[in-house]
Amino acid sequence: MEKERANTLLKKWTDLLGLQDWRIKLYPNAIPADFIQDNASGEIKWTECKKTAVIRILEESCYGEQMIPFCFERILIHELLHLKFCLLGESGNDLQDRLVHQLIDDLARALYEAAGNEREGLCEDEAEGG
Ligand SMILES: [Zn+2]
């Protein structure tokens, strides 16, 4: 992912999501060793009181074969939605937090498609069975 294109997408989605008052640093071609979490395609760390955030998105060549194809923009929306929800914090209820994470991913996919992008295709062999 070109840095300039990545920053254009960052600007587009921070505007659309009303996150303009955050200072966000985006690392668009991160390798797995850069990530705090294991097996992540994207991650975000924020400092609430300073309204700063760092987003890392995996380099496409490190993504491997997964059921959902790599999509930089959708991953970016997902990470920005974490920021949008950040004041809710962790509820202490594991099931609720997992549900919120699922909602974030559903919303990211919906927003991505609503912005005029094509629906992501699932890999054929995996879409059928397990
Ligand atoms: Zn997430």
Report the span from N to C terminus: 31 Å
CATH architecture: Orthogonal Bundle
CATH class, anyone?
Answer: Mainly Alpha
* Rg of Cα set: 15 Å
* Gross geometry: globular
Total number of distinct structural domains = 1
Q: What is the count of β-strands?
A: 3
Number of helices: 4
What is the topology, as strand order, of the major beta sheet? 1-3-2
Mean pLDDT: 90
CATH names the topology as: Arc Repressor Mutant, subunit A
Structure in a nutshell:
This protein is of the alpha+beta class and 130 residues long.
What does the secondary structure layout of this molecule look like, with pairings?
Blueprint: H1 3-16, E1 23-30, E2 42-47, E3 52-58, H2 72-84, H3 94-114, H4 124-128
Parallel strand pairs: 1-3
Antiparallel strand pairs: 2-3
The structure holds zinc ion (ZN).
Zinc ion binds at residues 78, 82, 101, 104.
Question: What does this entry look like structurally?
Answer:
With 130 residues, this protein is an alpha+beta fold. The protein has one domain (3-119): Arc Repressor Mutant, subunit A. Helices cover 41% and strands 16% of the residues. The chain contains 4 helices and 3 strands. Strands 1-3-2 form a 3-stranded mixed sheet, with helices on one face. α1 packs across α2. The longest helix is centred in the last third of the chain and has 21 residues, at 94-114. It is globular. 20% of the residues are buried. The model is unreliable at 123-130 (pLDDT under 50). The protein binds zinc ion. Zinc ion (ZN) binds at residues 78, 82, 101, 104.
